[in-house]
Amino acid sequence: MESVNAIGRRKAAVARVMLRDGKGKITVNDRDFKEYFGAETLQYVVTQPLVALNATDRYDITVNLDGGGVKGQAEALRLGITRALVKVDPENKSTLKASGFVTRDPREVERKKPGRPKARKRFQFSKR
Q1: 3-state class (DSSP) for residue 51
Q2: How far apart, in whole angstroms, are the C-alpha atoms of residue 86 and residue 101?
Q3: Which domain holds residue 71?
Q4: In degrees, to the nearest 5, what angle opens at C-alpha 37 toward C-alphas 71 and 111?
Q5: How far apart, in whole angstroms, are the C-alpha atoms of residue 42 and residue 101?
Q6: In Å, how far from its chain's centre is CA 87?
Q7: Domain presence at residue 103
């Protein structure tokens, strides 16, 4: 199998994923993903689609991650891996969709409005 490319996004994070046959090595920005994502929960989030398909040691994954915070990056990577796995075998989609990995989380930061300290917060009201 030649390499399969996919993109995953979440908030401001973008994950460009290249998936190819291998032994289960995940490399993020030229570092091992366990080193890049220190927290166990984030490592779990990244590997969820592979665990759902019992494919943890079937593919080597190279990732270029950019923007956002660590949680957004982890979830962007999860979506990128999911999309790559669906490209490899479209029959994987039903399993991954049932687990909720196929849907892109559309929530973004709301813009700051003029005359306010934040997007929705108001300055303190003073009657006199």
Answers
A1: helix
A2: 11
A3: 4-98
A4: 25
A5: 15
A6: 16
A7: no
β-bridge partners, 64: 16
pLDDT tens, 32-88? 999 999 999 999 999 999 999 999 899 999 999 999 999 999 999 999 999 999 999
Whether 126 maps to a domain, the answer reads no
109 in a structural domain: no
Angstrom distance (rounded) from CA 70 to CA 15? 12
If one counts the domains in the chain, the total is 1
Give the whole-angstrom CA distance, residue 18 versus residue 118: 38
107 assigned to some structural domain? no
- Give me the residue label for tokens 């950019």: 66
**Residue 17: its H or E element:** strand 13-21
What does the CA dihedral 92, 10, 68, 112 come to, rounded to 10 degrees?
180
What pTM did the predictor assign? 0.90
CATH number of the domain where residue 39 is located: 3.30.230.10
**Do residues 5 and 84 make contact, with C-beta atoms less than 8 angstroms apart?**
yes
